[in-house]
Amino acid sequence: MLKRLETKIIVSLALILAAMIAVYGWWTGSSQRSVYINALTDNIRVLSHSHADDAATFIVTKEYAGLESHMMNAASMPDVLSIQVTEPDGHVLCNIKRPLRGAPPKLSYDTRAIAVPRKAEPSLWREGDQLVSWAPIFAGTHLGWVRMALTLTTATQLQKATWNSSLQIGALWIMVGTLLMIMVVKRPLQAVRELSLFAQELQDRKGAQVSVRRGVYEIDLLADALNHSSTELREAEQRLLAEQERLTVTLQSIGDAVIATDTGNRIMLLNQIAEQLTGWREDEAKGMELGQVLKLGSDAEYTEVMTQLSSVLAARRTLELTGQHHLHSRSGTLRTVTANGAPIIDSSGQLAGMVLVIRDVTEKAEIEAEKRGLAQQLAQSQKMEAVGQLAGGVAHDFNNMLGVIIGHAELALLRIDTSGEMRDRLKEILDAANRSADITRQLLAFSRQQHAEPKVLDLNETIARMLKMLHRLIGEDIDLSWSPGFNVSKIRIDPSQLDQVMANLCVNARDAIAGVGKIEIETQNVTLDLHDQARMTDLIPGDYVMLVVSDSGRGMTPEVMDRIFEPFYTTKELGRGTGLGLATVFGIVKQNSGNIEVVSEPGHGTTFRIYLPSVHEVAQEAKPEGERPVGGTETILVVEDEPAIMEIGTTILSQLGYTVYAAGSPEQAINIASDRSKEIDLLLTDIIMPGMNGRDLSERLLQSRPGLKCLFMSGYTADVIAERGKVDEDMCFLQKPFTMQTLAAKVREVLDGA
Question: Which parts of the chain span the membrane according to its record (predicted)?
Fold first, then answer.
């Protein structure tokens, strides 16, 4: 066994030595050949450029015989196979060739043109066993090319000669080396035997049975032990790879971004979500500083955020960044995230780095912001609704009392001379009552409970008729600009409500302008869709007419804009306003199914945009009211459960020349109407009364008096009237409180109507 092992070692080492010597000989020959070729390359580069300079002289002087003679001398070198001089397009001027190395060069005229390089730059390359150089000929301009080809046969011969000499020397070294190996190989074999014993012990401890090809006893034992260890190592490696794969899948499956760093805050790992959020691929980010990849917070917050994250490593503690932060990706995308960090501790208890978990809460933050906005809108709506309900609750009694005051004041004025202190005091009473009635109407308009008589209007024509009145309201120092839109659609609104909207907006704009300024009014058709609901939550998509009123005033702060539609809220000085102007505008717009937008900045004025639904109907012409009350001789049945209103209404109608029957209840009115001897032309009745409402009373009387005309009145709000009074839009209606002129005109309108 010992001899077999020694023989194998000696033979193997001899073969290895022979192979090494052969490789060394080949390498040495190749090195010699490379050195020769490099030297040849330098020579041909220098020669070709030198010949190109000489050729330039001959070409310029057109001494082509001298050119051929010079190139023949240049071709006398034994390694030169050919020299060709061409024009820039490849036309051959001189062609010298040598068929074999050592043969004399000859001029040849069999080639007329050859392919030349595209660029006028020197080039050098190998073509088989030839080294070819191209040198451009310049004399102020590109005159042509010099092509030289050298043979590499000498280099190949030098390589073979070097290899042969190396092999001869190697054979001698193999014989000497074999003798030396025989002398020294016995000592290493002792170590191999000891290693075999160790391998046997290792194999017995592991209990592995590995089948190997047998040959040398000691080596077989060593192979068995090493194979066993290799198998265990391979299994351990497979377990580690499987564990790494599970860890990778887990990290990629987590819905949050995960970033791991070392103790120097350098990136070690990014999962897929982290790549998407930061815009960095893991292979790009590895080794980079954490702050270069993770851009958290604004410029002002960035330093503080990174300091907090560094404390995770310094204090070895888990940290959750308070609140939400903006994450700027590599591409500039902005996301809202939360972040927390924890230290990485290895099995020996040493700090290995830090892991960050970043959660994308952009959509959640947007939803929460939207919820907060909706909650604010709901609170604002509920607040306004509460004020509206309060206004509607007191409207009826307040209107009745105002009606009594206005009626008696007007009757008293008719009985007093045109001058005197008493007449002035009655006028003051009447003015105060009318102003109180205006405040009530504004409150009802704000709460959308005002009874309205909408008509189809051309907005451009209506505003054009109002311009003179608006000029008087705003004064001469303010420029009023009117820009009507082209072919603006019709709208449906009570003309008096439109007057209130324009007057309140223009007065509000006037008060916002200090000194000289400008108010601009414009109209246009617009189409609002679902995207506009982000600004106007109760918007119904469709076609609208937009009315814009903008001013060059001082503008408003966001705090003021949050409250501008609240009733009785005003920033004006005491006595300059009631705070009902914009509240009235808001209520009228909402009552007519419209929307309103406000844009304002301090120092940059304010713009109101009102959107009213467009209608496709013919506009109704407004009928001017008479300046003085007109009476008549017809008979009127007045039904009113409030005695004071009954008295004043009866008195006014009687003074206007009408015959009046007064009834304090529906039952009394039915009894009066049942008397066929009494001619009744008009029923003037309150809508809301105990026992029976005015609509039911009119239907009852119309059964016996088909030609009876009806006029309804009420001091209640529109929602109460609609719920309890059954009033349609086409019914004639008179809102309390009313003046003598209003009552006379409405009665006359109903009696004269078809």
Answer: 9-27, 131-150, 162-185
Q: Residues 189, 2: contact at Cβ < 8 Å? A: yes
d(CA 316, CA 355): 12
User: Dihedral angle at the C-alpha atoms of 55, 61, 66, 71, nearest 10 degrees?
Assistant: 10
Token duo for residue 226 = 């090493």
Contacts of 730 (CB under 8 A, 6+ apart): none
At residue 572, does pLDDT exceed 70?
A: no
Q: Single out the residue of 79, 89, 57 nearest to residue 70, CA to CA.
A: 57
Query: Which one has a higher pLDDT value, 446 or 176?
Result: 176
Q: Which two tokens stand for residue 303?
A: 């330093």
Rounded to whole angstroms, how far apart are CA atoms 36 and 43? 10
DSSP string for residues in 560-597? HHTTTTSTT---SPTTS--S-HHHHHHHHHHHTT-EEE
Model confidence at 569, pLDDT cuts 50, 70, 90, reads: low
* 539-545 long-range Cβ contacts below 8 angstroms, 24+ apart: 539/595, 539/611, 540/593, 540/613, 542/613, 542/614, 543/489, 543/613, 543/614, 544/594, 544/595, 544/611, 544/612, 544/613, 544/614, 545/459, 545/488, 545/489, 545/491, 545/611, 545/612, 545/613, 545/614
Cβ count within 10 A of residue 318: 11
Q: Are strands 542-551 and 606-615 parallel, antiparallel or unpaired?
A: antiparallel
Strand partners, 92: 86
**638 touches 684 (CB < 8 A):** yes
CB 646 within 8 A of CB 662: yes
Assess contact for 70 and 58: CB atoms under 8 A: yes
Contact 144, 85 (CB under 8 A): yes
What amino acid is encoded at 458 in this protein?
D
49-60: pLDDT as tens digits: 888 888 888 888
Residue type at 123? S
Q: What is the CA radius of gyration of the chain?
A: 55
